[in-house]
Amino acid sequence: MSDEEHGTAGETGDLALNRQLEASLREIGIPPRPRILELIIIEARAGEPDFNYLAELIQADVALAAGLVKVANSPFFGYRQKTRNVRDALLMLGLRVAANAVAGLILRRVFPPSVQLERFWDASQRTGELAAWLVKRLGVRYGVGAEDAYTFGLFRDCGIPVMMRRFSGYAQVLARANEDSERPFTAVEEAELPTNHAVVGGLMAQSWWLPEPICTAIRRHHERAVLTDLDAGGPAGRQVALAQLAEKLHQDSSGLNRSHEWDKLGAASLAVLGLDGGAEMAELETEAKEFLAHLAMAL
């Protein structure tokens, strides 16, 4: 099946963004959905996905192919079987998870490289990896698996680099938001700007066709209510709690990128995860350091 034939299947219905959203994306400066991601998701929704076709598409991008194989073999997913090629990675992960993995691999590329952003992406990567590890450690709840937790960790703050490009003084606003111990993070942004990074990140995730629970979690990840009203948003609340704890564990281990978010959302996050702040937390901190050391050795 040709690229054109694959593409037409997704140009109508729930796969198409409405014109108003598209205009908003252009105005804010959100990177357009990568074509290869579009093709993977369209194929995943087909009755009989063509894995050979998708493997050929991905293999045309050497870095993307290597990255997908590396993701499939990553210790934070915990698959016993190892793969050496893209087709087997697609079969192992499944197309939905593979599409999310491809989105995460492409994410760094769509923004101009800088030292500041490299640190940001590295922190997001570790948050995603630790969130996936926490699922393995604490169990699946509300349908949130390790793959979902990993993707959310990568994309949770993807609105920040968009805001950096769109608003010249955003770095200073970001610093003030990190230092504010009382107001919600997004309230600090909205006091000075017409939007916030959570809304922008949610729009980007939606435009990149990420699963709706992940889009919702991105939009609401600075809201305490998403953690306290699980009846209304269980999957989103679970993802926010996992990432919040993962970020806390990474910050404690590395001493980098500290903020007041754990002070604001930590207790509610632990409640969602069924943890206390004493011996259980100390045990997790020790295990997380060992896990991060294992990841570093695997690089």
UniProtKB/TrEMBL annotation:
Domain HDOD: 30-224
TM annotation in the entry: none
Name of the featured protein: HDOD domain-containing protein
